[in-house]
Amino acid sequence: MMHRTPGEEMIELLTLCQQLQSEKDGLKRPVPRRPGVAADEVMDGFAQRILQSCAFAASLDPLLDLQSRLADVGRRLEEQGQLQTDVGDNYALAALTWMELITGTGTAL
Fold this sequence. Notes:
By secondary structure, this protein is mainly alpha-helical. It has helices at residues 6-25, 45-58, 60-79, 91-103. The longest helix is centred in the first third of the chain and has 20 residues, at 6-25. The chain starts with 5 loop residues before the first helix and ends in a 6-residue tail after the last helix.
């Protein structure tokens, strides 16, 4: 069994959702992530929303990786005494806020 990423699983579920809704509606909608729309396919509001949601899901995996890496940075900064966090704080957000303060590129939360 091949491991799928969260983004890939979301796209698979969205595609299934569209397929089931299309069968119920008696419409042929374009398959998400396939380029173009065939002459016999309907690009209605539902299909557009699925397509947009699939685009968001496709960007999820790199964002999850970035969040994980930022959280690691936050934990290291805390270990080095450069960052203080409370129980339940988000290490990734704390690290980003710290970097913004150090570089003068953002505002403190």
